[in-house]
Amino acid sequence: MPQNSLSPNDSRVRKYGDFACNRTTRIMALVAIVLLVLVAGLFFDTNFKANKSAETEARLTWSIPKLEHVAMRVIPASERYRLGADGWKYLLPSGGHLVHITESDGSISTHTVAMFHQLRCLEILQDAYVNEGSHRTSQLAQHCMNYLRQTMLCQMDMRTEQQGSIFTYNGFDQICYDWEPIYSEAEKNFEAFSKYSV
């Protein structure tokens, strides 16, 4: 046997073999730890996204219960809603005419509630009438005129109204849907969206 060759039983071979085995074990352990961290990270990330998505879906909804009917006295003349009165500023809920809804893919979409859109248009027209004081008409006011015309035609009220002077006419009774649950849901939606978007 040549002088430089080693036998398998040589102590130097075993030490090197132990080191090689040790090194392989360390590398495999490191790979196993890295894989474990990656798998755990994917699980927690997916779980976090699922929880966030479920939380968002639960918070950003637009769910109106079946609306009850209420009686309302419709009076053409109103102190609270004279042109230029402060009442016009408070027609809409805190979030204005918009609500935010979580879609099935987790994204958030913004919608306009038709009733609030109509009220916003009344506010815009009132403001244009009071503040412009001329025959100029903004594109937004034009939009509102057309929007109100079309929605009134779509949801027309077929009852008859007694004619008379607006100064002496005492109004009429009307059965309406209770709009309080709509305002309440809009406030809940705005509060949830405000917390979510922070």
TrEMBL record:
The chain crosses the membrane at residues 27-44. It comes from the Eukaryota. PANTHER family: TAT PATHWAY SIGNAL SEQUENCE, YALI0B05434P. Pathway: Mycotoxin biosynthesis. Coiled coil: none annotated. This is Uncharacterized protein. InterPro entries: UstYa-like (IPR021765). The keyword RNA-binding does not apply. Keywords: Membrane, Oxidoreductase, Transmembrane, Transmembrane helix. Belongs to the ustYa family. GO terms for molecular function: oxidoreductase activity. Pfam families: UstYa (PF11807). One of its GO terms (biological process) is mycotoxin biosynthetic process. The lineage of its organism: Eukaryota, Fungi, Dikarya, Basidiomycota, Agaricomycotina.
